[in-house]
Design brief:
CATH architecture of the largest domain: Beta Barrel
Number of domains: 3
CATH class of the largest domain: Mainly Beta
Shape: globular
CATH topology of the largest domain: Thrombin, subunit H
Structural class: alpha+beta
Distance between the termini: 40 Å
Strand content: 35-45%
Radius of gyration: 26 Å
Strand order of the largest sheet: 2-1-12-11-8-9
Helix content: 10-25%
Length: about 575
């Protein structure tokens, strides 16, 4: 469902939840959202927009601006001019701002109807990203930087039974059965503080904004998360400098000279960070995962005290119950200034080891460590240390469930196994990645279905929707009349064109899906005439046509950006003919 509120200043004058495929926002009798009088230059402030979703993907909502000249949207605290026809994903909340001091229309996905039970995790993974936003509009303004910690809500992809058992064990564990703090582990954590640094952004006037955590892995390199390194790469260089800080009196700041990101993250994070359509018993289910190999190196000038890494044979023996702890600089929602606060040490245990798809597999592939340590923004990149004093992983994400009261932690966190860092150090990451690419591609296709399977399910769901809307007869069916593969490249100028003859009269559907889960776009034309298009960023475009006579059409297939260019990517395209009863 989607919640739409009309705001006049800070006061909400109207609100309503919608559970329909399209909500129209306009100043006429056909609007779903009534607007109070508001003027700009003596006239009503113009507004024409739609909030839309696909019936087969009820987890995805988009805002499309339709008024001439576009509109201003407030997204993640940043004002963004948006052109006509652009589909803006509604993640969190989006404000449609009509003008200075005028009405604001706030759109957000609403919560679930009832809180999920602790032993029944919901079938959805939704990553909450703390986005770094730079507010510099003119020279001399300071950048406003947020704290970044990737968070996810866990769905266990066919392993709910095992997760229920783990959650049950945590829930039912008597208070007096909680093990006392491991004194040896605590000593190792305290010693590791000398090698653990705050990742931050400094500027020319001496202000420092906390970001995350990194730790020394060699005398001049630190390990942290790849999503942290990506944020550092995006920092504007005019007067700003990524640094690592060892708190103290005075603190020691070292400029970050270079970053190196694991190739698996660079190749796959675009796929893992989006909501994928997973084929479920009742249709598509939203699937989100923890981006794999979220590790990177930061190069600095200085002599650091590196932390010891766990040996590969010990990493392969990690299992649920292993005592672990982390040292880091969590800052989010903690009181007081934290920019020069000492590192925090926390103890807990591993709860599982899985692959990047949350599946328990052979030890070699169990690169994702699950743990019960409490973490918050700023702890990203912290070293996860075992009772022998060796680093076994890097903290990266925390699990939550969505309830009517908001996001509630469920005591499940994630870390990436430290041999991923060792691969960058010894130069073997690129050598090992082709095998992983093949394994990950197969595993993800097993979860989401092949492109043809996704298309066929989407076609059945859309056909059923048309029957329910009484635009088709109840006995209507569809059959495939053509199938082809189109090489997929980024940008409409590089679109693949395919000619298709439709034997009319009749109703036809053209649907597509990419083998690398890219957002495919479809444009259908006849000569110079546009017959239909689908540019929604949901990965399953569909164009339905009703024609009175036979014609040859041209299909243009492309993507604004491909996810896995090394495959190479392509799109499967199916053409369907709809039959209403016997012919």
């Amino acid at each position: 469902m989607v919640l739409i509120r009309v705001l006049c200043g800070s006061e909400c004058t109207w609100s309503r939840e919608f559970d329909q495929d399209e909500v129209r926002i306009a100043r006429d009798a056909n609007t779903h959202v009534p607007l109070p009088a508001a003027t700009v230059g003596g006239q009503d402030a113009p507004i024409e927009a739609r909030v839309i979703r696909r019936p087969e993907r009820p987890d995805l909502w988009f805002l499309r601006i339709e008024q001439p000249g576009g509109a201003n949207l407030l997204v993640a605290g940043e004002m963004k001019p948006t052109d006509v026809g652009v589909h803006v994903p509604i993640q969190g909340e989006v404000d449609l701002v009509l003008g200075p001091g005028q009405v604001t229309i706030r759109i957000q996905q609403s919560g679930t109807a009832e809180a999920p039970r602790a032993l029944s995790p919901p079938p959805v993974i939704q990553k909450l990203a703390r986005v770094l936003a730079t507010a510099r509009r003119r020279a001399g303004l300071l950048a406003l930087l947020g704290i970044m910690l990737t968070t996810v809500v866990v769905v266990l992809l066919g392993q709910q039974r095992r997760m229920k058992e783990r959650l049950s064990a945590l829930e039912s564990r008597p208070q007096d059965a909680t093990p006392a703090a491991d004194e040896r582990l605590q000593l190792d954590l305290d010693e590791a503080k000398d090698s653990t640094f705050l990742v931050a952004i400094g500027n020319a006037v001496g202000d420092v904004s906390a970001l995350a955590t990194a730790w020394a892995v060699t005398e001049d390199q630190l390990a942290t998360n790849a999503h942290v390194a990506e944020a550092l790469k995006s920092v504007e260089k005019d007067g700003e400098q990524p640094i690592v800080r060892r708190p103290g009196n005075p603190p020691v700041d070292l400029p970050v000279e270079a970053v190196q990101i694991h190739p698996a993250y660079e190749r796959w994070h675009k796929v893992f960070e989006k909501s994928l359509p997973r084929i479920g018993a009742a249709g598509f289910e939203p699937l989100r995962l923890v981006p794999p190999a979220d590790v990177a190196l930061l190069k600095v000038a200085g002599k650091l005290k590196p932390l010891p890494l766990s040996a590969d044979h010990d990493l392969l023996r990690l299992s649920a119950g292993t005592p672990v702890g982390y040292v880091g600089f969590p800052t989010e929602n903690l009181p007081g200034p934290r920019i020069n606060a000492p590192a925090t040490a926390v103890q807990g245990r591993l709860t599982a080891t899985t692959d990047s798809f949350l599946q328990e597999t052979e030890p070699r592939g169990n690169l994702l460590l699950h743990h019960d340590l409490p973490i918050t923004g700023g702890a990203s990149g912290s070293p996860l240390i075992d009772s022998s004093g060796h680093v076994v992983g890097l903290v990266s994400a925390s699990g939550f469930v969505h309830t009517t009261g908001g996001w509630v932690p469920i005591g499940l966190g994630f870390a990436h196994r430290v041999d991923l860092v060792r691969e960058i150090l010894d130069g073997t990451a690129n050598q090992k990645q082709p095998l992983r690419d093949s394994e990950w591609f197969s595993a993800l296709e097993d979860l989401t279905g092949t492109p043809r399977q996704r298309i066929e399910l989407s076609a059945r769901m859309q056909l059923r929707r048309m029957i329910e809307a009484e635009s088709l007869a109840p006995q209507a069916t569809s059959s495939v009349i053509s199938e082809f593969r189109a090489p997929l490249q980024s940008g409409e100028s590089l679109a693949t064109e395919h000619r298709l003859f439709l034997d009319g009269p009749g109703k036809f559907g053209i649907l597509a899906a990419a083998n690398d889960w890219s957002d495919v776009d479809l444009v259908v034309t006849e000569g110079q005439q546009a017959l239909g298009e689908d540019r929604l960023p949901d990965g399953l475009p569909a164009v339905w046509l009703t024609i009175e006579e036979s014609k040859e059409i041209v299909l243009k297939v492309f993507a604004e950006a491909v996810n896995l260019p090394h495959l190479p990517p392509d799109a499967t395209v199916l053409a369907f003919r709809v039959t209403e009863g016997s012919e």
